[in-house]
Amino acid sequence: MSDISDKEKQENTQENPAEGKENLAAEIAALGDDAFTKRKERHKRLRTLLQFLILAVCFALLFSLFFHLKTYHPYGEGEVSDSSEDMGFIAISYFGVDRIGDTSTLIGKDLLEQHLKALKAQGYVTITQKDIEDYYLHGKKLPKRALYLMFEDGRRDPAIFADNLMERMNYKATMMTYAGEFDREDPKFLKPKELRDMEDSTFWELGTNGYRLEYINVRDRYGNYLGEIDPLRYAMVHRYLGRYYNHYLMDYIRDKNGVPKESYDHMKRRVSYDYEHLNDVYQDKLGKVPSVYVLMHANTGRFGNNRDVSAVNEYWIRDLFTMNFNREGYSFNQRNSSIYDLTRMQPQPYWPVNHLLMRIKYDINQPITFMKGEDRHQGDWENTKGAAEIKEEKYILTTLPEGEALSRLNRKDKFRNARIRTRLEGNTFGTQKIYFHAADDLSSYEEVSLRNGDLVVTEKIGGAERELYRGKIASILGEKIPSKEEMKKEAEVTENEAFARYADSPAEAKEYLSRANERQQEPAASVEDGAEADDAVTSFHERSKHDIDIAFKDEMLTVKLDGRTACEDLPISSTQNGSILLGADWKADAWSQRNLADDVYDGVFDKFTVLANTGKDEKDEKVLFTMQYTGLEHYEHRAKEIWEAILKWFLTNL
């Protein structure tokens, strides 16, 4: 059967006009059906409402980014200390903020919010540059808990991720900038107009890190002299550096033998040049020079590592600025220090909130209430040393300064045979411990720990401790351990490539690339060849994440790391029923070029789980305890993790 064409329909209508009119009337009646019309109008209204809501949300987000509904309110008279004791103030400075916070310098926005909320909960209110000036020069009293907050380097990210926090918490911060970045086409750094807008919001003040950031007298940890490098070259070679480099305002420029390459007059002109240009740029772009300055990186008790250089810096600092943060590592300032010799603490992006509070507590020598985190599982743990926080599926232990942290799993039934599984996420340098078969007074126990890149099994019987096993994590995981010769070669190749990439001319770039290629062709003995392993401790900021599986039954112990067997059926002496404890320990042999004073360590135990160890398949073993989410919480948390992973991928790769 074929369809009737429009032409045939028209002919039929012409032949039967009455029938055509009836059909047309029926169609008009159908179109005018009340139910159909109402349904159509309802869909239209819902679509319009949805579009309006989407536009409203977008407008609200944009408005919150660029406008403020509130203004900053300074602390009140009731918050001022009535004690005759000098309560001083703490100064905290963040390098920058990003959305996730998994870089070596930028804190995640959520963790920053936790830090600031914890400070707010301790009673801290922010003070301004004028408050500090009046405190030192005019004897003004400060609040009982006074906080001076800074963000360094003039990056745009704090303006995006921290600005809303400042408004919500009624906090005021100083944005530090480099004058030399104002004319560079680099979207990472704020420009003068944006800085003026931030200042107008009342939640921000302006300060300066100086004119530029460069390093001098740089030598890698293999003794190679690199001389002067800028931040771009530094980013390429920093993993090969030791402690042998300095900020360019700290010393004479020296040759490979440490002898000055410049005269006193040349040094004075070089240092003065930066201060003069700093003054010119700020006057031109902002109409003023900021009152507060951060001298990078003094920490010497003077204004440089050399007496002559210090004198030149001091002249300009006193001439241009009202105050200067001359030291880093500690947070507490009192009247017994100079307004030109202030100190600040720089929290790292991996610091849990109790790490920050622990550092402040022992800087100010006053009581601090540590954060316990989520309510779930609080009754399952007894914290006896340091501080403990439950954050989602993680149990986080923060040590005392240069000390330990310890928590006991509260169970009526002691464990004799069991299997412990967790993911350890503390930094490489430091110790994360898991005790089992432990006596109440810890006079006896078995212990599995990660210590400074090693996996160690220890037992204590009758008060005497002995080591049962030690293996390098890299060896357990089948990773190649480089020799010093290999790492020195890699460093020299990379260093020449860095100088080639940012060379001043094509000829210079060609010369450095030629050196890199020649060095690449030279042989270097490996550990397998008998060369010395390169096991230098580079920085305690090095991150580490490992899954550990500990199975103990009767007199045997098996430990797996990231699915690889470290030790199997290792004989152990202590087989009595005992407690399970988690511990963390700070190690003095870890260091950092920045934050040299950080003497607190965090053990992070993710998804800590204890299973029965009866010999059944793992999936059939009874779960005796777990920090993992279960039920609906489990699926909600996993969905969040997947979403964060997707978002991170897009932010990283697009």
Chain-wise SSE layout:
Elements: H1 6-15, H2 17-31, H3 34-66, E1 89-94, E2 97-98, E3 107-108, H4 109-121, E4 125-126, H5 129-137, E5 146-151, H6 157-161, H7 163-169, E6 173-178, H8 192-200, E7 204-210, E8 215-219, E9 225-229, H9 231-237, E10 246-247, H10 264-286, E11 292-294, H11 307-320, E12 323-328, E13 332-333, E14 342-344, H12 353-364, E15 381-385, E16 387-391, E17 394-398, E18 404-409, E19 418-424, E20 431-438, E21 445-451, E22 454-461, E23 464-472, H13 473-476, H14 484-501, H15 506-521, E24 546-553, E25 556-561, E26 564-571, E27 579-585, E28 602-612, E29 623-626, H16 631-653
Parallel strand pairs: 1-5, 2-3, 4-5, 5-6, 6-7, 11-12, 12-14
Antiparallel strand pairs: 1-13, 8-9, 8-10, 15-18, 16-17, 17-28, 18-27, 19-24, 19-28, 20-21, 20-27, 21-22, 22-23, 24-25, 25-26, 28-29
Question: What's the gist of this structure?
Answer:
The chain is α+β, with helices and mostly antiparallel strands and 654 residues long.
Verbal overview:
There is one protein chain. The chain has 654 residues and is α+β, with helices and mostly antiparallel strands. It folds into three domains: 77-363, TIM Barrel, CATH 3.20.20.370; 372-478 and 541-653, Jelly Rolls, CATH 2.60.120; 484-521. Helices cover 33% and strands 25% of the residues. It contains 16 helices and 29 strands. The strands form six sheets. Strands 16, 17, 19, 24, 25, 26, 28 and 29 form an eight-stranded antiparallel β-sheet that branches. Strands 15-18-27-20-21-22-23 form a seven-stranded antiparallel β-sheet. Strands 1, 4, 5, 6, 7 and 13 form a six-stranded mixed β-sheet that branches. A hairpin with a 2-residue loop joins strand 22 (454-461) and strand 23. The longest helix is centred in the N-terminal third of the chain and has 33 residues, at 34-66. Mean pLDDT is 89; it is low at 590-595.
